[in-house]
Amino acid sequence: MFEGKPGAVFVRFAIPQMIGLLFNSVYTIVDGVFIGHRLGREAMAAAAVAVPLIEILISVAIAVAAGAGVLIAARLGSGEEDQARRLFNTAAWMMGAAGLAVALMGNCFLEPLARLLGATPEVLPQAMDYLWYIVTFAPFQLFSFLLGGMIRNDGRPRLAMTAMIAGAASNIALDYVFMYPLSMGIRGAAMATALGPVFSVLILLPHFLRRRGVLYFQPCRPRLSEGKGILVCGVPSFVMEFSIGIVTFLYNLAIRRHGYGEMGLAAYLLMGYLMLILLTLFLGMAEGLQPVFSHFMASGEEARNLATRRFSAKVFMGVGVVSCALIFLGAQWFYRLFSPGDPELTAFAASKSIPYFCGFFLTGLNILMISYWQATQRTGRALAAALLRSVLLPPVLILTLPALLGREAVWVCQSAADTLAAFFVIFALVFRRGP
Questions:
Q1: End-to-end Cα spacing for the chain
Q2: How many CB atoms neighbour CB 114 within 10 A?
């Protein structure tokens, strides 16, 4: 399963997850297309309010899946299949508890949640309608990512890809049905997004229920020590994914504070769709490579690990450069898919895309190295890099750059954060001991 040259291993593991996660990202993007065409700018602003919460849910799921995946791969590499199954079942217990907590708390505090996420009085009712479906179906959202990650570690990356694609396809079909023939408005868009993960889970569950691999459900009492270990290993992934939600939240607040209003929120939603595609390419490849890096570490194949990492770095940088060039040349055409009748909005979003995406060609390198260090249990380095590019640098830059350089500088803050984080990654590679 892990045999072959670095290129072959990369294609076998990184590409299916990248394709699957890219289709999974269609959930949010297709919503934007339908909402923009059917309901207009105000509804798009309401949907933008839910994006940080969706990304936070995904970050929790990926953190548990990645943390458990690193530990499970190490156990499987050492022949400890029983311990690997215990870790899988502990992760399932954790995800179930998290999903129920989000559903219960979200429904109890829906209006305060919408206001906290940046809903203006004008879009608050629609934002609450959208958020209700997101929080109520949160357990399925979480389990779709967990089960997909576990299946990759169980040697079936293509099944994980199939489940994600099926979820995306159902979302597209349901978006049309709910928003056009049934005329359900923004509730229809939210329901389609919420039901997509349900189909993914239904495809993934038989693998575990019918014991088709090493990992499957079995009665066990979760151990606190195992849960703690999963969380510690998964923290870098949580921070890396959480950055999408937290940065979106901060930008929503900053856009309102600097007077861009609904135009700015709607434009940032369009830019967020483009950013989601770019980040999905990198995150998908990085997640797909986690079992590879973890297996090579557990089996003592350090030379193959380094060779795969070097090959992957070249691919990530190449994808980053090409993606940024396409964004600079054709972003306005992409934005017209969402709002063809609003040239003012698409022109505004395109003009802000150049400063916003100018440093994103380095994002891939940061994400790859965070994933590599995490998969090889160099958690300190992974956490430091993840914190820099998401938790530490963006808030500082969003607060300081517009104050120093004017409000237009708010659009360059995330690229500046990724550039500074890349300096840390390169420093760690060149000047610190160890791979």
A1: 24
A2: 24
pTM: 0.76
Question: Which stretch of DSSP H or E encloses residue 110?
Answer: helix 110-116
Half-sphere exposure of 254 (CA within 13 A, CB side): 26
Q: Rounded to whole angstroms, what are the CA distances from 256 to 28, 58, 250, 253, 394?
A: 22, 25, 10, 5, 17
For residue 387, report the phi and psi dihedrals to the nearest 5 degrees. Answer: -65, -40
Residue type, 51: V
Domain spans in the chain, listed from the N-terminal domain onward:
6-431
Token readout for 245 is 């939600």
Provide DSSP, 51-85: HHHHHHHHHHHHHHHHHHHHHHHHHHHTT-HHHHH
Strand, coil or helix: 356: helix
Rounded-to-integer distance, Cα 231 and Cα 360, Å: 28
Digitized pLDDT (tens) for each residue of the chain, 435 residues in all: 667 788 888 888 888 878 877 776 766 677 677 777 777 767 777 777 787 788 788 878 888 888 888 888 777 766 777 888 888 888 888 888 889 999 999 888 888 888 888 777 777 888 888 889 989 999 998 998 888 888 877 777 788 888 888 888 888 888 889 888 888 888 888 888 888 889 999 999 998 888 887 888 887 777 777 888 888 878 777 777 776 667 777 888 888 787 777 788 888 888 887 887 888 889 889 888 888 888 788 777 888 888 999 999 999 999 999 988 988 888 888 888 777 777 888 888 888 888 999 888 899 899 999 889 988 878 888 888 888 887 888 889 988 998 888 888 888 888 899 899 999 988 888 876 555
Quote the CA–CA distance of 143 and 62 in Å, as a whole number: 10
Whole-number Å distance between alpha carbons of 263 and 276: 20
